[in-house]
Amino acid sequence: MSKAELKRQFILEQTEALLVREGGAGLSMRKVADACGISLGNLQYHYATREALLEALLASFIASYGALVQDRPFQPSGDLRRDLSELVSSGLELLDETQASRVFKELWAAAQQSGSLAREMTRYYRELAGFYAQTLRSLDPAADGDRINRAVSVLMPLFEGFCVTRSALPQDRNELAQIWATAIHATLIDADQAPHLREAT
């Protein structure tokens, strides 16, 4: 890694720390420069605008967090409900163990004001949806594409919503994993295996 690349990485690390500490509203180029111990002009040499800085931070966050999600050890047991609970629990644990939920919440808020950030966020969501679809398909090979897509449509908003509402949720992480696994399981199983679901629809 070149000296310039190391400098940009350091700037992004300080930006992330500032974002977690003060939130997006408190993030300014001047504060980032001060946190890095460099001049504003030096910061702007690497990232000309606040939006460019946030775009780089989002790209870095997506790459690092995406790698953590995909590298998370997970061994299917063959029991679909149990495996779904483990999958959800692993995802929640990752959010609890890192600053990911706080960083993502602030970046998501910033994306609502920036077209380029919003496009990058959408690209990330699509990639994540593909990963979860592949994972769910490995857990339930008999599920058709429609059921896999429905399950992904349940799973992803739950994780994203957790980033925002976690402090107010009345259930702990283990209870949430059980509740969510039940909901996802209901979207995957065949209607013939669940007459009550068929009647409800």
TrEMBL record:
- PROSITE patterns reported in the protein's UniProt record: HTH_TETR_2 (PS50977)
What broad taxonomic lineage does this protein's source fall under?
Bacteria, Pseudomonadati, Pseudomonadota, Alphaproteobacteria, Hyphomicrobiales
Instruction: Report keywords, A-Z.
Output: DNA-binding, Repressor, Transcription, Transcription regulation
For this protein, the record's Pfam families field holds: TetR_C_6 (PF13977), TetR_N (PF00440)
Ranges for the HTH tetR-type domain?
Answer: 5-65
User: Key word Transcription present in the record?
Assistant: yes
Q: What is this protein called?
A: TetR family transcriptional regulator
Please give the superkingdom of this protein's source.
Bacteria
Q: Name one molecular function that GO assigns to this entry.
A: transcription cis-regulatory region binding
Does the keyword section mention Transcription regulation? Answer: yes
Tell me the Gene3D superfamilies matching this sequence: Tetracycline Repressor, domain 2
Matches recorded under InterPro entries: BetI_C, Homeodomain-like_sf, HTH-type_TetR-like_transc_reg, HTH_TetR, Tet_transcr_reg_TetR-rel_C_sf
Q: Which residues bind DNA?
A: 28-47
